[in-house]
Amino acid sequence: MFGGGACSFSFGTKVRSLEPVLAEKDRAQFFVGTSTLNQPNQIYIVEVNDNASDVTTRQVLRHPGEVLSLAPSPQDRQLLVTCGKQRGQPTEASLWKLPDAEEAPAHSEDDAEGGRDHAVDATAQDLTQLAAFPAQKLPVSEVAWDATADSPTLASAHETLLRTWRLDGGSVEAQEKLELDVSMLGGTTKRGASALAWDPHHASQLAFALGGSVRTWDLRAKRDSVSVEDAHPSATLSLDFNPNKPYAIASGGDDGKLKFWDLRNARKPVLSMNAHSHWVWSTRYHPQHDQLVLSGGSDATLALWRVSSISSSPLVELDERDLMDETAGGAAVADTLIRRVEEHEDAVYAARWATGGDAWMFASVSYDGRLAINHVPSTEKYKILL
């Protein structure tokens, strides 16, 4: 479906993971990983033109087992970490080197569906495994790069254990570890550590979810602390730090709410949104403009939010009375839902901003394999830029 600065496309198979190609700054490119038990799995590198009218497959990469999560290098576009699971085996994390992009011919996704599948299968390439992350006592669920570290540093989650790793050439070296006590977790889900998020403002600080709580790990002090005891009833599912404002973090959970916290005083959220009618699987601040936030949920919708009042640059300074008065301009800048995208028909597991090309573009994937590309409305851009 094309038009209006948006498009959507189906991969025809189950998908759980989506990430921008972080090291690509000139073009909007995304990794998309398939997640199916009975068919070969692949990682697609897709490129979107600036007006979001066309999606092009740049590379198709064979992957052993389901792709459960993707972690692209912030500096090197040819380095990628995946968490994958083959049938009957525990989940494993691997560091891969991508083949050169120019070796793979491009295919536009506005071709006929049958032709697209045939062409993609014919041009699939192999990944080169540089290293497998050493197995821990429990399987790995996700890996996250520290974009602020001087040398390549990653963290991994293993239910009751967190680990950090240093890349040295093609090898992965274990660094710090943190054992977690999950015996006191409340609720029915009892989720282990997940939703890893490195703090962009404070070196060696990692936030993560444990059950319904939000915790932080200070690697220098070698200890963790509970930042938000009951952020969500049973499961905090997604976290993201504000890129511009220290101590500010957003969370999404099993209560369908999108909450914003000041970690210095987190007894209650500074803002709470009724974001979705079911679980909030994805939460992402805009990389530059923290007035904008994405959320994706199990209700098969993607939401674009304006949270100007708690951003680093509120759109306009208004007192409380003005915020309730449309004639004073309050309605135009109040914290609110900007748009709800309803192109998906299954749970939206990931929503991400483009980090190259058009900075106002965002993408989302749902479990049924649909990729949707959308733009921030022009009226919102003008409020931020003017």
Topology, please?
Blueprint: E1 2-3, E2 6-10, E3 15-20, E4 28-34, E5 41-48, E6 55-63, E7 66-72, E8 79-85, E9 92-97, E10 107-108, H1 113-122, E11 125-126, E12 128-132, E13 142-145, E14 153-157, E15 161-168, E16 171-179, E17 194-198, E18 205-210, E19 213-218, E20 223-228, E21 236-241, E22 248-253, E23 257-262, E24 271-274, E25 280-285, E26 292-297, E27 302-306, H2 320-323, H3 330-333, E28 336-341, E29 348-353, E30 361-366, E31 370-375, H4 378-385
Parallel strand pairs: 6-11
Antiparallel strand pairs: 1-2, 2-31, 3-4, 4-5, 5-6, 6-10, 7-8, 8-9, 9-12, 13-14, 14-15, 15-16, 17-18, 18-19, 19-20, 21-22, 22-23, 23-24, 25-26, 26-27, 27-28, 29-30, 30-31
The number of domains is 1
Q: Which fold name corresponds to the CATH topology?
A: Methylamine Dehydrogenase, Chain H
CATH superfamily: YVTN repeat-like/Quinoprotein amine dehydrogenase
Question: Between the first and last Cα atoms, what is the distance in angstroms?
Answer: 32 Å
Report the sheet-strand fraction. Answer: over 45%
**Residues in helices, as a percent range:** under 10%
What is the average of the pLDDT values? 89
CATH architecture: 7 Propeller
Tally of alpha and pi helices: 4
Describe it.
This protein has a single domain (2-385), classed as YVTN repeat-like/Quinoprotein amine dehydrogenase (Methylamine Dehydrogenase, Chain H, 7 Propeller), CATH 2.130.10.10. The protein is mainly beta. The protein has four helices and 31 strands. The protein has helices at 113-122, 320-323, 330-333, 378-385; strands at 2-3, 6-10, 15-20, 28-34, 41-48, 55-63, 66-72, 79-85, 92-97, 107-108, 125-126, 128-132, 142-145, 153-157, 161-168, 171-179, 194-198, 205-210, 213-218, 223-228, 236-241, 248-253, 257-262, 271-274, 280-285, 292-297, 302-306, 336-341, 348-353, 361-366, 370-375. A hairpin with a 3-residue loop joins strand 14 and strand 15. Helix content is 7%, strand content 46%. Strands 3, 4, 5, 6, 10 and 11 form a six-stranded mixed sheet that branches. Strands 1-2-31-30-29 form a five-stranded antiparallel sheet, with no helix packed on it. A four-stranded antiparallel sheet has the order 7-8-9-12, with no helix packed on it.
